[in-house]
Amino acid sequence: MSTSTGAGGGIVVSGMRPTGRLHLGHLLGTLRDWVSLQEKFDCYFFVADWHVLTTDYERPERVSEFSAEMVMDWLAAGLDPERCVIFQQSAILEHAELALLLGMLTPVSWLERNPTYKEQREQIQGRDLSTFGFLGYPVLQAADILLYRGSKVPVGEDQVPHVELTRDIARRFNNYYGSILPEPEALLSPSPRVPGTDGRKMSKSYNNAIALDEDPASIEKRLGRMATDPRRVRLTDPGDPKDCPAFRLHQIYCTDDEIEAVTEGCKTAGIGCLDCKKIMIKHVVAELAPLRERRADLAENPERVREIVAAGTERAQAVARETMRQVRDAIGF
Length: 333
Fold this sequence. Notes:
Strand content: 5-15%
Shape: elongated
Strand order of the largest sheet: 1-2-3
Number of helices: 14
Helix content: 40-55%
CATH superfamily of the largest domain: HUPs
Radius of gyration: 22 Å
CATH topology of the largest domain: Rossmann fold
Number of domains: 2
Distance between the termini: 36 Å
Order of helices and strands: EHEHHEHHHHHEHEHHHHH
């Protein structure tokens, strides 16, 4: 296998927690971007299995299974192990070592003002999140990035504070021990808000998601029942696309001419909601068809998937060891 990665315009580091089947929101919000980035940068994409424990430490049983399933989705979506490094976080103990050292110098106040920490404490119910691991997970995120000298981190706008915190931690380390760790930049990625079948943000926890390997009949049935403008009770009732959750998928998938036609049809009641959604559904089915086929092939050859992750982990391990050698020398260990 080739050991080359992207075009060398910088180092991109990003990961994803293996918490279940990937869906259309992951494809549109993250995977499309990763596939593009692997052609331009040296990319490290990792299975963030340790991060699952920050909120689900009581239920780790399926992390291994979900990890393999997630990597199959990545490969089916177009990640190429010849162009990027795909690896498993927990197989490289240097992540934990660097997180420990960075945690020694990270003020608790920095972690407590992290907006995601506050939001998840309020939103995630039924779990005790008063743990060191949950409070300190941004330090582990910083270690994930800095271990590979990441210069760019693809994120949506809501995740920019995480990258800023990583910069602060790297700067504080460098002030004490010398310029060892780079200060990464947020690489804002196009992350459209993908609605689920009930109109809320698409999420497996809401049971409103379209899985990447979902069959066409199921896609057509579930998107055909997707929430629309509530004013369109009868076929003759006019509506407004801006109040229609399904229209957000039209904006992502449909051509300008199609969007113009359904907008006019909705406002004049010239088209029914189901016929309107069928225009969008055909695009979703067409995009997922080759992914489903590639994923089926991968599912028949799980050893190949394990080999890809093992090879990527070996490549990442070499980089991690060198970074930690320099970190230890800088500290004086």
